[in-house]
Amino acid sequence: MPLSLAQAERLLATTTHDPHLLLHARNVRGCMEAFARHFGQPPEEVEHWGAVGYLHDYDYELFPEEHLKHTEAELLAEGVDAADVRAIMSHGWSICNDIKPETDLEKSLFTADELSGIVWATSLMRPTGLSDLEPRSVLKKFKDRKFAAKCSREVILRGLELLGMDLADVVAVCIDGMRAIA
Ligand SMILES: [Fe+2]
User: Fold this and answer.
1) pLDDT tens across 84-134, in order?
2) Is the pLDDT of residue 155 over 90?
3) 110 CA distance to ligand 1 centroid (A)?
4) Looking at the chain, which terminus has fewer C-beta neighbours within 10 angstroms, N or C?
5) Domain ranges within the chain, ordered by starting residue
6) C-beta of residue 44 within 8 angstroms of C-beta of residue 100
């Protein structure tokens, strides 16, 4: 069975307590739900994509130096669908493994992971936050490499290439998704 949001929430709660990581999980979930809508997925798949997004950093708080080394066997043992485990593993492609994102879900997760950080950081600079944030504000911050410097522009560009989408379009999807669950 595809991962449900309830299952993702239960599993992440066993490893992750840092409010920043939980916020990141939530933001990536929102982005993934919006990507699923963008790709014309039905409602149950929108939840499914969001659930994979929510769980993607399952081992990061406990093993920041060994990220994704404590995920595959653990999640399979918890009964998480093998395709969803692969999707989670593939967000480390070119960073901590060579599991290349192949599906739209995987490509979306790979891209949203880093981009959601820039979108969120841009929203924090504004009194009105995400509510009326426009893609061009994020594009400006994307070019400023000192802004949210930990969010890798290279990884995002690699993700855009996988998706075959423009940065502006992907930013719009992420804003939409993060706003929907804010
Ligand atoms: Fe992440």
Assistant:
1) 999 999 999 999 999 999 999 999 999 999 999 999 999 999 999 999 999
2) yes
3) 9
4) N
5) 5-181
6) no
- Cα(96)–Cα(57) distance, rounded to whole angstroms? 13
Q: How far from the centroid of its chain's Cα atoms is residue 95's Cα?
A: 15
- Ligand 1 mean position, distance from CA 130 (Å): 20
How many angstroms separate the alpha carbon of residue 127 from the centre of ligand 1?
26
Please tell me the distance between residue 92's alpha carbon and the centre of ligand 1 in angstroms.
Answer: 9
Rg (CA), the chain: 15
Please name the residue that has the structure tokens 């066993």: 14
How many angstroms separate the alpha carbon of residue 27 from the centre of ligand 1? 10
| Residue type, position 45, single letter | E
From 142, 63, 53, select the one nearest 96 (Cα to Cα). 63
| 30 contacts 180 by C-beta, under 8 angstroms | yes
Q: Find where tokens 């708080």 sit.
A: 61
Residue with tokens 């192949």: 102
Q: CA-to-CA distance for 114 and 180, rounded, in angstroms? A: 19
CA distance 44 to 174: 19
pTM of the full predicted structure? 0.97
